[in-house]
Amino acid sequence: MLAIYNKFGIKESGHCCNGSRDLPPCSMECQTFFSICLFHYVTELADDPTCTYGQTSTPVLGGNSINKSSFLSLNYFPVTMSFDFSWPRSFSLVIDANHDANNNVSATDRSQRILRIFVVDDLKPSSNWIFKDLRVNQSHVWFKYRVVCEEFYYGPSCEVFCRDRDDRFGHYVCNENGTKTCLPGWDGYFCQQAICSSSCNSSHGYCEEPYECRCRYGWTGLSCDQCLTNPGCIHGTCERPGECICNDGWIGKKCDIDLMYCVKHKPCLNGGTCTIDMFSNYSCSCLEGSNGRNCQNSVCNEIQCRNGGVCQIEGNKTLCKCRENFYGEQCQNTKVSCDDIQCLNEGTCYFGEFGAMCTCEKGYTGIFCEREINECDSHPCMNGEHKSSFSLTIVICSGRVEQPVEMDITIILANAPKTMEVKTVNSISILVKGIVSTKEHAHTKSIIQKIRNRGIRNQDKTGTKANKQKPPPYEKKRTPDMRVRPGAQEE
């Protein structure tokens, strides 16, 4: 409402609104308020229409004349009506100006109506106003109207919802039709899709913020147009992610084997031969006498020859060539000379590979031939169950008894170099084999004498000669108690 001018202060009926007079000039002004009714399109207006689209009313706004400033001061400009349905465009509008006679602002008392305005129209929502200037009866009215959609609603029926936003649900503003207009850098129906940089490969790159370029798995580069090689690929490229296509001169799964490594670096030393190795770039075939990855080690460095020995290579083996009087794998042993030892019991010394050694006469053993061989240790008795020993060097074995009066007896003088055979009339045999010491020699003679006293005669005098051999000389060089064994190490 813009203004109303009721010059005479009368109602629709022509009577005064207020005061002592019924007809103009009226003594008092009208108490004017407005009621508005909005409903569907009709061609004929009923006296009491149904406000199907809505209705509203104002308080008393003034007297006979009310201008725009009065409406503004009372915050009733404009007068608004809300609806919760799609706008049908065609409508009917009734505006009544009434006199408040009973201070109850009731529009139902038609007798208090000052004027009625009836408007039918077909109107799209718009920000533009429709202006009306009407004269009704004795009054003059100025007003304007329009249909606008509520906030966030657009379209000819106000049914398009659109609200500006700039968050993860969208980045846009709404135009006058409710159409979403994306903010710069965004695209899509809800403007949620960022626009990548112009150089970004659309197949291999993407973006979450405008004008960036993030690469998908397997691709790299500012434009995501470079594939990533297989992890570990050193001298290779790819056409698709995960490949490793070797550059010229390189081979291997990771293109890390240099075909020219042997030529460039010559890694094999000491005359070794270099060949390409698929596992470690190269390998060296070493000549005899060297080893190591690069044939850098001399085989002789791995052993230490002692006592002045010299390392030599024979075939695939290394050995120490020892100086005179030394032996062992490292020449660690000292040889003993024949001047350092004494061979007993007529043993003979000879100088061999491991130094001086004794060769013993028959019946003796030991490093220095110092021990007699005990014939009993070899179990010489045959066909008997009993053996008798007259001494440590003589053994008598009982023979197999076939007749009670006939028995063979063998007497063994252990470790003797010569033998004698003694027979008796009772068929008793005696075998004598040397002696070891003077003491044993005397004891043996005593035993033989006892046998003779029993009727046994000596038929061979060679036994007497054998039993008379002298014991070996005993010198104070090295005796069996102070022996030096072969293999003794040098102090």
TrEMBL record:
Protein name (Swiss-Prot/TrEMBL): Delta-like protein
Function: Putative Notch ligand involved in the mediation of Notch signaling.
Region spans: Disordered: 454-491
EGF-like domain mapped to chain residues: 258-296, 297-332, 334-370
InterPro entries for the chain: DSL, EGF, NOTCH_homolog, Notch_ligand_N
GO cellular component, as recorded: membrane
UniProt GO BP: developmental process; Notch signaling pathway
PROSITE patterns listed in its UniProt record: DSL, EGF_1, EGF_2, EGF_3
Membrane topology: Single-pass type I membrane protein
Residues annotated as domain DSL: 147-191
Bias (Basic and acidic residues): 473-484
